[in-house]
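[step 3/7] inverse_fold.run input=structure_tokens len=248
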């Protein structure tokens, strides 16, 4: 079975790379790889390397690059998921699964009805660092070569200002004027950078929806059943990638 390991892109040279810390320890002490063994390594920037191990110590591995491939198992479209923050274990689950499915970037968002308020999130850096570690593990497991960017936590009003930087912005809602992904003709018109916006389980306020629509966001329904916010994020991402011919 193919196993990918992760190397910090800063530790990759033209013909060689080095791995340090926990990843090197896992390869050498847990999996028992030795000098002369070949491994596959991804840098999270789109490249997978075939490497032969040439030098080792307790927490250091140096290898020579034998070959490499670019953008293997990656969508050609960049889909960003702006997700209302949910409970810790559910957010962790979402980060893992969205990475597997093919998300390009995740923006954690605080809305008016989000139970977790931005000024109440303690150790925000530690939480984002944890999400990044989960994304790395999921990237390796799913054989991806690009590590999704986990952006800083922002408020909904800040998110709206980002809409113009995308080709298309879609917002999930149960409102009557929402259309299904299949009915969204805009996805078929060459959109390469797409933003998906998912609110908390209580939904967006009328003010938030109005602001989003005023900035060009298209309301999208995910069906008649009300989904948990982390479920909605994964369903929205899957349907969008499928419609873009990037999944299934």
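[step 3/7] decode complete -> sequence:
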């Amino acid at each position: 079975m193919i196993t990918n390991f992760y190397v910090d892109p800063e530790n990759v040279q033209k013909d060689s790379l080095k791995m340090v810390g926990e990843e090197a320890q896992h390869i050498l002490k847990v999996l028992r790889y030795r000098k002369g063994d070949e491994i596959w390594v991804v840098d999270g920037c789109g490249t997978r390397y075939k490497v032969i191990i040439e030098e080792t110590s307790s927490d250091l591995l140096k290898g020579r690059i034998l070959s490499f491939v670019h953008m293997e198992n990656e969508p050609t479209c960049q889909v960003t998921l702006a997700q209302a923050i949910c409970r810790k274990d559910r957010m962790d689950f979402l980060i893992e699964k969205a990475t597997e499915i093919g998300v390009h970037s995740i923006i954690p968002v605080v809305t008016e009805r989000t139970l977790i308020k931005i000024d109440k999130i303690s150790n925000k850096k530690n939480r984002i660092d944890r999400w990044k570690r989960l994304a790395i593990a999921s990237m390796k497991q799913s054989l991806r070569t690009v590590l999704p960017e986990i952006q800083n936590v922002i408020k909904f009003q800040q998110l709206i200002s980002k809409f113009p930087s995308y080709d298309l912005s879609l917002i999930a809602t149960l409102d009557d004027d929402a259309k299904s992904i299949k009915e969204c003709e805009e996805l078929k018109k060459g959109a390469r950078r797409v933003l998906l916006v998912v609110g908390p389980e209580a939904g967006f306020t009328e003010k938030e929806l109005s602001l989003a629509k005023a900035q060009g966001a298209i309301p999208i329904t995910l069906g008649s059943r009300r989904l948990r916010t982390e479920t909605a994020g994964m369903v929205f991402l899957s349907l969008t990638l499928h419609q873009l011919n990037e999944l299934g």
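[step 4/7] annotate
The chain has a mean pLDDT of 94.
The helical segments are 22-30, 88-101, 124-141, 156-160, 206-214, 229-243.
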